Amino acid sequence: MASRKDRYYLLSLGCSKNTVDSESIAQVLHQNHMRGVERAAQAEVLIVNTCGFIDAAKQESIEALRDLVEHKRSGQMVIAAGCLSQRYGANLVQEVPGLDGVIGTRRWMDIFDLISRLRDRQHPEPLYHLPTEARTVGLDERGVLRASVQGASAYVKIADGCRRPCAFCAIPKIKGTAVSRPMDSIVREAVQLQEQGVKEIILIAQDLTDYGYDLGLKDGLAHLLEAIVAAAPDVPWIRLMYAYPGYVTPRLMETMAKHKQILPYLDMPLQHGHRDTLLRMKRPAKIEWVYETVGKLRAIIPDLAVRTTFIVGYPGETDAEFAGLLQFMRDLQFDRVGAFKYSFEIGTPSAALPNQVADEVKQQRWEQLMELQQGISLAKNQAVVGKTLDILVEGHGQSEDDQGRAGGLISLGRSYRDAPEIDGYVLVEGELPVGEIVPVRITGATTYDLMATVETGAPVVIQPGKVYGEGMIDVTAI
């Protein structure tokens, strides 16, 4: 077997924000002449960028670490990085005996320093790098690109940490308070991504709408968007994820409405629709604000797609409170909804609340909520049938008939209404160019996905001298 020296294996778990951190860790290692490999057996350094947000994610991370430790060979080291490491620190070694190193979220840029110390250590005891200071971004990024490029899309982290008091969330304990990246650094990255041909920039943070607060900026997100639009005009799509209720300002609304590059899509996790539940959650509880703000947004951005997230079975949630959540959903008709059953998290204020909801009740409420939203989502999808939408083509697949028999080739794309991984697809019969934005006519709808065709009379020219879309047919029956 070839030498494993100076090779690393990196497993990234959890959300898109974690993926960005993993990409940044990889860049630091590359700067120090290390090379990534796809198999753990080929590497000297084995790293798991863990997730510790909910219990299921914690268990997945621990199992991944245990597997690497169990199969570790002489000369290899296993390092736990990320949220679980920051949250549990040195105690993580009790769960995973045999770990060599633990590094938290707040100083990921020191990963090679930790590796060097592990190489030089004289005794097998694990080494830890767990600063408590929240220096997650902006202060010492060592020239790395704080983005994760996935196909024609790129997640760009504009801040890290959170200063909100949500009673169910451990993120402030894991990440620390909110730290915004310098605006000029983010704008330079947008320009770099434009030069790489990226078609979609997805701005992410624990709370996008808090961007710039620590820098003394008012309406920092709106200012940042204006700067990105001006500096990178050839990036056709800019998508916003994770806006905090109460901080979608008139200036932000105007900025979104004014610039075609900024997609008419907003992810605003509301968590619940009943005032009393929200108060126990320590979330903004002025329900009237949500009605007013969503109404204003839809008035100035008529095609706006609103995605939100709800928690069912929060401690003390009564039948009346849950009924209030369902009515809230009926009233506001959200385009996309993610729903989670409340998960008990040790160390969060909600863990000490009385009247914990039984698991079977959580399951029943989750199913009822999802059934309601499925009807709303289907109606929303049906409303765009007959319209022309631009889609970003992400790949190809094969259609099937009602008996499961293979059909023809189809292209899978996303419209402005669909964020990667969490929303639906637009399915188009035939082969469209991956990584390009193509206009299609919507011909059919299901609960989550749309069907479309590139009309024969209107072929799409993507590259000079090459025509796509000729002879395509309606795929409503797929």
Report on the structure:
- There is one protein chain.
- This protein has about 475 residues and is an alpha/beta fold.
- The chain folds into 3 domains: about 5-130, 3-Layer(aba) Sandwich (Rossmann fold), CATH 3.40.50; about 145-380, pyruvate-formate lyase- activating enzyme, CATH 3.80.30.20; about 390-470, OB fold (Dihydrolipoamide Acetyltransferase, E2P) (Beta Barrel).
- It has helices at about 15-30, 55-70, 85-90, 90-95, 110-120, 170-175, 185-195, 220-230, 250-260, 275-280, 285-300, 320-330, 360-380, and strands spanning about 5-10, 35, 45-50, 75-80, 100-105, 125-130, 145-150, 155, 160, 180, 200-205, 235-240, 260-265, 305-310, 335-340, 390-400, 405-415, 425-430, 435-445, 450-455, 460-465, 465-470.
- A 7-stranded mixed sheet has the order 7-8-11-12-13-14-15, sandwiched between helices.
- The N and C termini lie far apart (about 50 Å).
- The model is unreliable at about 455-478 (pLDDT under 50).
Chart the SSEs and their pairings.
Layout: E1 7-12, H1 16-31, E2 35-36, E3 45-50, H2 55-70, E4 77-82, H3 83-88, H4 92-95, E5 101-103, H5 111-120, E6 127-129, E7 147-150, E8 153-157, E9 159-160, H6 171-175, E10 179-180, H7 183-195, E11 200-204, H8 220-231, E12 237-240, H9 250-258, E13 262-267, H10 275-281, H11 287-300, E14 305-312, H12 319-332, E15 336-341, H13 359-382, E16 388-400, E17 406-414, E18 426-429, E19 437-445, E20 450-453, E21 460-463, E22 466-468
Parallel strand pairs: 1-2, 1-3, 3-4, 4-5, 5-6, 8-11, 11-12, 12-13, 13-14, 14-15, 18-20
Antiparallel strand pairs: 7-8, 9-10, 16-17, 16-19, 17-18, 19-20, 21-22
Helix pairs in contact: 7-8, 8-9, 12-13
